[in-house]
Amino acid sequence: MSCSFSLPWHRHLHAYATVVLAGSYEESGHLGRIRAAAGDVLIHPVLDAHANQIISGGLMLIRLDWVDANGIGGLYHLDDVDELARTAEKDVLKTRLLLERRLREKGSPSPGQRNDWPDLLRVDLAKNPSTEIGEWAETNGLARETVSRGFSAAYGITPSVLRAELRARTAWLRITRGSDSLCRIAADTGFADQAHMTRWIHRMTGATPAAWRRRTCFA
Question: Which of 31, 150, 175, 207 has the maximum number of C-beta atoms within 10 A of its C-beta?
């Protein structure tokens, strides 16, 4: 892939794993701001959203379907990815199983995760999507306008939009993986009401919560 390649903010309905074999690229999204280099492994959970920018020539990746059991992704590092590359040339399923085993046995946190204030805000929003942006800014000695502009420059979306997306994703996981009422889920995830939740889930997935619940029932 050439260093001129980039993708604006986009979304993936299904989970997948990316193994970087060579080169490096930057990603900003639900998992934070990441600079992934050779040996790094990114696990993207279901309904993950991010933007990408390639910053070095000769980028080589392996992309694998992933089983997302808990809805949580992450960034890891493996010292040697040559075996994964060789296996991927012959059998993709075996490559995924090998990657799962390698991460359990030898995976370590990657140093590619950034942690300045936009990323700290992203972490706080992920922990508590009801976080008020103005209160967070004041607590951290920043003006609300500074937070909004700086976060948008770093992530490509405003903190309030990311907050709503994280709420909607949490709600969607509960809708598709549980049996709580839609009204209860909307209240628990910080939406003003069920209609508010419905608008955001439809915006992100193209279907309403009720439609997703019906799909789950008949799956």
Answer: 175
